Amino acid sequence: MARIRRRSDRAHGFTLLELMAALSVIIVGLVALSGYLVSASGQREQVTLRHRVLAEAQNILEEIRATDPYAIRATYDGATFPVEGVQGVVAGGRTIAVAVDSSDPKLLTVTVTGRWRARGAEDSLTSRTQIFNRNG
């Protein structure tokens, strides 16, 4: 007995409608992924700028700690510093400002503040240290 193969009424493959639906799903996924990548890139830039400002603020604080306590206020109070590659918002486009509080002559309080702008938003960080003045 010979077997007769039946041919299906439907041809094998995908219809145009199925292909369009699949492409639509892929496009929506790619758009969502691109939004995530843009957001991640902006966050990476913010972290990089914050790291640069923090590193420079730490360098300035170390420099101040190495200075004779008598000279700290005269040398650093009101001083501003730029940070390479960072758009500062402190006086003159600089990024870091230093303030020295010497209301207690035996204990100087040094505040280093970094302020910068990235992607239209302003960000800042502040670091404070106290320096004991033995001869104050």
Kindly describe this structure.
The protein is an alpha+beta fold. The chain has one domain (16-132). 43% of the residues lie in helices and 27% in strands. It has two helices and five strands. Strands 1, 2, 3, 4 and 5 form a five-stranded antiparallel beta sheet that branches. The mean pLDDT is 86.
Summarize the structure.
The protein is α+β, with helices and mostly antiparallel strands and 136 residues long. The chain is 43% helix and 27% strand.
Question: How confident overall, as mean pLDDT?
Answer: 86
What's the structural domain tally? Answer: 1
- Radius of gyration equals 31 Å
The helix-and-strand class reads alpha+beta
Largest sheet: 5 strands, antiparallel
Taking pLDDT < 50 over at least 5 consecutive residues as the criterion, the unreliable ranges are none
Query: Globular, elongated, flat, extended or rod-shaped: what is the shape?
Result: rod-shaped
Following the backbone from N to C, one meets helices and strands in this order, namely: HHEEEEE
Helix coverage percent = 40-55%
Tell me the total number of β-strands: 5
Strand content: 25-35%
Terminal CA distance reads 116 Å
Query: What is the helix tally?
Result: 2
